[in-house]
Design a protein that fits this description.
Length: 376
């Protein structure tokens, strides 16, 4: 079986789908890896390291894809600057694995199906115990939560820790994290490590203990009950009235925070609007909002997707590239995730089996057998 690792050609993304470490784990007589020359360069992995791990390094793009049984990428297929269309090069019948963003790429899914490819979309991995080690969204949300604090600290004009210096005592920065899921919990831990005083809020009551165990204060809301979460443990969408009362609850906490990091998400829904323009006006000049939900409309009314804007003296960061911003560790995590997934779908003879009765395969297979399986 030939597994192909192309170089990513998505702007600002220096990650690679498989690291030499991940390849070493799987390479054998039955499983050969072909890696595009320079694929790992942006994440600091050299061609020689891939060769040492047992991979063949291929310069020519056409030759790379030839005979591929599996193609693994971070991002979906792209048309490269030189005109090469990756989708056209993947041999019919092969398995393509990437983060496909299926909700916005119906045309790509259609073309993959027409070409007879099976495609796995990694974002659709269920958040279950069995799938935990294959969950790339959680891995990249960990990166994003960490980086949100780093970017917030950089944009702030204050120290995070309390300092006692000859020039006087400096109080610690105050940080509020809204949404205590994967990214939020990592943001809390990171802000605490930097010495800030941290408060956090979530509508799922079970997060209280997790927030407190990281050394942050949980903002209590009597309306936040078990009814606000699904059986699967996700938050439900709050009504417009509840959203307004939540804003009232958070307004004072936001006003006294130096940095607010928002991560509130209900899967498949636009981001809840939790910070209004009025609330931003109530913040001290020089304060910072890092809105991780910028991609899905933003938790703050003033967020501009992909940009940093200054509004009423407050910096509002709406960057959407945070998951890609630690290419070394991001690639190491993704590579590990892919090697677990590939092992999960291999039979005893180390051949890939697409078994739609398998709970992982059926959740992530967006195209198979000439059909688009993904439904919005
Ligand atoms: P998650 O599902 O683990 O956490 C989201 C949390 O928001 C949950 O705990 C949920 O209970 C909470 N929530 C939902 N509605 C709320 C409300 N009304 N008030 C308060 N809390 C509420 O998701 P995650 O993996 O931590 O991702 C968080 C966000 O970060 C998502 O929007 C995701 O798309 C985004 N993200 C952004 C980047 C980037 O580069 N900007 C990268 C990765 C993830």
């Amino acid at each position: 079986m030939r597994i192909v690792v192309p170089k990513e050609h998505t702007p600002l993304d220096r990650r690679v789908a498989m690291t030499p470490q991940a390849i070493k784990r799987l390479a054998s007589d039955e499983i050969q890896f072909a890696v595009e020359s320079g694929a790992g360069f942006g994440a600091s992995f050299t061609d020689d390291e891939y060769r040492d791990a047992g991979a063949e390094i291929v310069q020519d793009t056409k030759a790379l894809f030839e005979g591929a049984d599996v193609v693994v990428k971070i991002n979906g297929p792209v048309k490269r600057e030189n005109g090469t269309d990756e989708l056209e090069l993947i041999p019919s019948g092969a398995l393509f694995i990437a983060q496909m963003r299926p909700h916005e790429n119906a045309d790509v899914l259609q073309r993959l199906a027409e070409r007879g490819l099976t495609a796995f979309s990694m974002e659709l991995m269920p958040r279950t115990t069995l799938a935990q080690r294959m969950d790339c969204l959680s891995a990249f949300s960990t990166v994003a939560g960490y980086m949100a604090v780093i970017r917030g600290a950089e944009a702030s004009s204050k120290f995070f820790p309390m300092l006692t210096t000859a020039a006087g005592t400096i109080p610690p920065a105050t940080v509020l994290i809204i949404g205590a899921g994967v990214a939020g919990l990592q943001a809390i831990a990171t802000a605490r490590r930097l010495g800030a005083v941290v408060e956090a809020f979530d509508i799922r009551p079970e997060t209280k203990e997790q927030v407190q165990s990281l050394g942050a204060t949980f903002v209590e809301w009597e309306e936040a009950t078990e009814d606000m979460q699904t059986e699967g443990g996700y938050a439900k969408e709050v009504s417009a009235e509840e959203e307004e009362r939540e804003q009232q609850l958070l307004a004072d906490h936001i006003a006294k925070s130096d940095i607010v990091i928002t991560t509130a998400l209900v899967p498949g829904r636009p981001a809840p609007k939790l910070i209004s323009e009025e609330m931003v006006k109530g913040m001290r000049a020089g304060s910072v909002i890092v809105d991780l939900a910028a991609e899905t409309g933003g938790n703050c009314e003033l967020t501009v997707k992909g940009e940093t804007v200054e509004r009423h003296g407050v910096l509002v960061l709406g960057q959407t590239d945070l998951a890609a911003s630690l290419p070394v560790h991001g690639s190491l995590m993704y590579g590990r995730i892919l090697s677990v997934l590939l092992q999960h779908i291999m039979d005893d003879e180390r051949r890939i089996v697409i078994d739609l009765d398998d709970e992982i395969t059926t959740a992530i297979a967006v195209t198979h057998d000439g059909n688009v399986r993904y439904q919005q």
